[in-house]
Input
Amino acid sequence: MITAEWKPIEEMVGYLRGHKKVLVIGCATCVAECAAGGEREVETLAPLLAMAMQNDGNPIEVKSATLERQCEPEFLEAISEAAADADAIVSVACGIGMQLVAEHYADTPLYPGVNTTSLSIREEPGLWTSRCAACGDCVLGLTFGLCPVARCAKSLQNGPCGGTRTDGMCEINQDTPCIWRLIVERATARGRLEDLTKVRPPKDWSNSPAGGPKRMLREDLRS
Amino acid sequence: MANNSTADFQPQITLLYCRQSLAAEVKAVQGNRAGDGFSVRLVLLPCSSKVQLPHLMRLLEQGCDGLQIAACPEKACQHLVGSNRAEKRIARGRGLLEQVGMGAERLGLDRGAGLSLDDLMEMAGQRAEAVRALGPNPMKGV
Output
């Protein structure tokens, strides 16, 4: 899922000074799963913003709504009346959903209530960890299903760096396992450690975010 | 933080309590009660884990001066981890209230078993005292 985290409320207050009627909108999909932007979080944030603005000396009227998805235009119509009535929108969807709302309701300023942070899984309750970096050239078939792009601080492709801790954790973050240790362990368990010695062609990074804005076209799906 | 403190401030407290925390012979009560220098609305919960931040924040947005949760002792929760979940939510809520300038002390949780109505009123009174230093809820009457 796409994960996000609330921005500091102080930052949101800074955005909202000068506004009077604010619509806080959430998304019931990815950001709901990571407890940042679903209905529960929207209904927590909306009164908090009202209180924060009151204490800031800039009282606002706050309304709230949670869309099924903010990244699909079909779902945005549900807030058309509320958006028309608001002079600002705070979105706690991912950056994708936020931009679609900003485009759809272009006359109303939109402010982010979250920072979009990663493509992660919920590893255990209350803990989300990266699994994908949308690099555009998946190597999971070569690395036994463990991603060295998203899960290595240096995105190393040919084995661990020299910084792996003695307990097998990453030198950058002691709570993160060295992914190359896990790759080697899985390869060993499958009796295929030799596979990791094979020379691979250079990874194609041109299809990654570093290659510029992505534009994916499927002629068979176009009208 | 807004300082609306007044000498005659009578905090309005909402106390949400777990029905399991009451003594067996105590009849569960709900509704408004007057305390010494404060008023309290008692709300019965099947378990303290039923408290959710949206509900608590809405109550404060609507002008309640302070919120008190009464939960069972850690090892006595009928839902095993219910009171622990409530405690974590309250800790997060207190942090958020501090961020928005309302003051963490507007929200609190205490544990107890075999509680009487007097015990609940005492808890509410302690919350009222904590809130008194913050003054009335700035959202009152908004």
